[in-house]
Write a structure and sequence with these properties.
- There is one protein chain.
- By secondary structure, this protein is of the alpha/beta class.
- The chain folds into two domains: 168 residues, no CATH class; 267 residues, TIM Barrel, CATH 3.20.20.370.
- The chain is 37% helix and 14% strand.
- Strands 9, 10, 11, 12, 13, 16, 17, 18 and 19 form a nine-stranded parallel sheet that branches. A six-stranded mixed sheet has the order 2-1-3-4-8-7. A two-stranded antiparallel sheet has the order 5-6.
- The two termini are 24 Å apart.
- About 1% of the residues have low confidence.
- The structure holds zinc ion.
- Zinc ion binds next to loops.
């Protein structure tokens, strides 16, 4: 595989060097190319520059927009230009009539700063001005909801279009993205929130949810004939599909009183014999035991690390992956929490999503190493060493939508699977441990089944546990990095 010769104009480096190098690393490794950075005056394959006459004989020239790099968070998405081959988006003030990609004698000119666009999506610039509720959950602007921007994964669309452009420009075949010649990847995950039912309380909640039709199931829960301990049934179901999932456990034991006072941690104790035995069964069978960081784990690194250690002791294994309960990273500064993942030794995290909206919060269906853009302590910006596995869908996002019928829910999740396949991305589903029971949660499991049936029928997905996917991504990333030269700022 030939390495791409990349040149970046010195003015851009001075303006946003670490951020620009980081974006290029994410882009080129996602597409599957190594690189060699060369001076702007040397012959190169791709020039990223502010002035067209600096591009020399480059086969691809990307015209940068320094004004955007100066104030990234000031840009607001005005629309998606879905049919344009070079750019899927448009900011406020940009003309719809822009000619975005020109070809002349086999050379391509992008008059669109796709490097900035990727930075803007992958660092979540626009969400910083959206309203947040008490848990830090954002409400998306109407346009984002109507156009289903998250479900389109615009950052991945850019990455795929750039890859197609490299092919069109005649560059060698890239390194394959996924093992076994597969087109895409998928992982099933379960947040373990409520495996041990509170027998005097839960029947009331069932009747509240389901009305009179829930009375029979509520009675069975009250009398102990029906419960939330669904692990054996999950294992049987997944074995039938030939897959293994990850279960994320909370190591900090909460209480009803704490819950009422606003710290909604689950009530179970991971050090109890029942859980120790469960961990052994899961691990022996090939399932992943991961961490579901408690609601306030992000608030202190020692607390976060202590939870990881407690779970590792109980499970008798190293914990490599995490998801935050309630997706609750520092609501004012998620970058700080993302950095903590690397600092406490996690291989990956899978918490970047919006609670109520399906689709990809940072616009990407492929894993990426995040970037801190406002590290308060050090004023530095740099790449974070724990890979992010972006979540496509959580059960409640569809199952709690009263405006959708069950067939419509299944249609939406199948569309996500197909979209991932089109973008050669990763499909991560989050289905809670306790929703397995059709009588207690009608339709919840059926939606996951619809996704699994589609993935199985397609036959082009690599199904693996999140830790296997993260390890693959790290190995591939390191392989490309170690054979490349330059684009090293912010590492
Ligand atoms: Zn949870």
């Amino acid at each position: 595989m030939k390495h791409l010769r990349i040149s970046i104009s010195p003015g851009l480096r001075a303006l946003a060097g670490p951020a620009i190098d980081w974006v290029w690393r994410q882009l080129l490794t996602a597409v599957g190319y190594g690189w060699q950075e060369v001076s702007i005056t040397d012959p190169c394959d791709i020039a990223y520059t502010t002035e067209t006459d600096l591009a020399g004989e480059a086969r691809i020239m990307i015209l940068a927009s320094p004004q955007y790099w100066q104030t990234p968070s000031a840009q607001r998405l005005a629309g998606l230009v879905v049919n344009d081959p070079c750019s899927p988006l448009r900011y406020n003030g940009e003309s719809l009539a822009l000619t975005l990609c020109k070809e002349e004698d086999g050379r391509f000119r992008l008059e669109r700063d796709i490097i900035f666009d990727l930075f803007w999506f992958l660092t979540g610039q626009e969400e910083r001005c959206w309203p947040q509720d008490v848990h830090g959950f954002y409400t998306l602007p109407k346009f984002w909801q109507m156009e289903r921007v998250l479900e389109q994964a615009p950052a991945s669309a850019i990455i795929e279009k750039f890859g197609a452009l490299l092919k069109q420009a005649g560059f060698d075949e890239p390194l394959p993205r996924w093992p076994q010649g597969r087109r895409a990847a998928a992982a099933i995950t379960h947040d373990v929130d409520y495996p041990e039912v509170i027998r005097w309380l839960e029947p009331l909640r069932i009747v509240q949810r389901q009305g009179l039709s829930g009375v029979s199931a509520a009675w069975q829960v009250l009398t102990g004939r029906r419960d939330h301990w669904a692990f054996p049934r999950w294992m049987e179901l997944e074995t039938n599909y030939g897959i293994r999932s990850a279960f994320y456990f909370v190591a900090r034991q909460g209480s009803l009183l704490e819950y009422a006072r606003g710290t909604p941690d689950p009530f179970y104790d991971v050090t109890a014999p029942r859980f120790r035995e469960l961990f052994r069964t899961l691990i022996d069978g090939g399932w992943e035991v991961g961490m579901h960081a408690s609601y306030l784990a992000y608030a202190a690194q020692e607390r976060f690390a202590a939870e990881k250690q407690r779970l590792e002791e109980a499970a008798g294994t190293a914990v490599m992956g995490n998801r935050h309960h309630y997706w609750h990273m520092n609501p004012a500064n998620p970058d700080e929490t993302l950095q903590m993942h690397a600092d406490i030794g996690l291989l990956y995290d899978t918490s970047l999503t919006h609670d109520r909206y399906l689709g990809w919060r940072r616009g990407s269906t492929v894993p990426f190493y995040p970037f801190t853009t406002h590290s308060v302590a050090t004023h530095s910006s740099r790449e974070i060493g724990a890979v992010q596995l972006p979540v496509a869908w959580m059960d409640a996002q569809l199952s709690q939508r009263a405006d959708l019928s069950q067939p419509q829910r299944e249609e939406r999740v199948i569309a996500l699977v197909d979209h991932v396949a089109a973008q050669r991305g990763l499909f991560v589903a989050n289905v809670h441990d306790y929703v397995f029971d059709e009588a207690l949660f009608p339709g919840w499991l059926a939606t996951l089944r619809a996704a699994l049936e589609r993935i199985t029928a397609r036959g082009d997905f690599w199904m693996a546990t999140p830790v296997e996917i993260a390890a693959h991504w790290r190995q591939r990333y390191q392989q490309l990095l170690s054979s490349s030269r330059g684009l090293e700022e912010g590492r």
